[in-house]
Design a protein that fits this description.
single chain, alpha+beta, GMP Synthetase, Chain A, domain 3, Ribosomal Protein S8, Chain: A, domain 1, elongated
Length: 165
């Protein structure tokens, strides 16, 4: 588990990182959550640390379709790993962009799945990154009336939603 001292160091490094961008931001770090997907007896504890940024000009930090946000998250994660020995990942969000995007994707998945179920015709979604496709797949995993599949090659990989036979 990340200690209070390590959390303070993470906040300090994150503040330093964003200070260098010359953009005014507020930083909020949520308590870490354990995110190991392996059985407990074999699992090394891995934590996800949510870092929420509030900025006056968020679009500069978010970029087109959230790509700059993902790049910043990767870069910040690499910088933090050099200073903190504990095994963790960061989940960076700027002005709740990711939170709103996830809700939009879940709603899109449900709406398209309802259409597919009623019309009994498959529908293709536009190309999207792996993490967005994962949200769609997980949202529809519990439904027995439709099935999902990712098709194509990156970066043009798409999801097809089909009626379940």
């Amino acid at each position: 588990m990340l200690s209070k001292k390590e959390l303070e160091k993470i906040k300090e490094i994150t503040k330093e990182f964003f200070d260098k961008t010359t953009l005014e931001v507020e930083i909020e770090i949520s308590p870490p959550k354990e995110t190991s997907s392996l059985p407990e007896e074999k699992a090394e504890k891995i934590y996800t640390l949510s870092i929420n940024i509030t900025a006056q000009e968020p679009q500069i930090l978010i970029g087109e379709r959230g790509q700059t946000l993902l790049d910043i998250q990767q870069l910040l994660n690499a910088i933090l790993k050099k200073s903190i020995k504990e095994n963790f990942f960061i989940d960076l969000d700027i002005n709740d962009y990711k939170k709103r995007k996830i809700e939009y994707l879940k709603e899109l998945a449900r709406t398209v799945a309802d259409e597919v179920s009623l019309a009994k015709k498959e529908k293709w979604l536009t190309a999207m990154p792996a993490y967005e496709r994962r949200i769609i797949h997980l949202e529809l995993a519990g439904r027995s009336d439709v099935t999902t599949e990712s098709v194509g090659q990156e970066p043009e990989r798409k999801i097809v939603i089909r009626p379940f036979p």
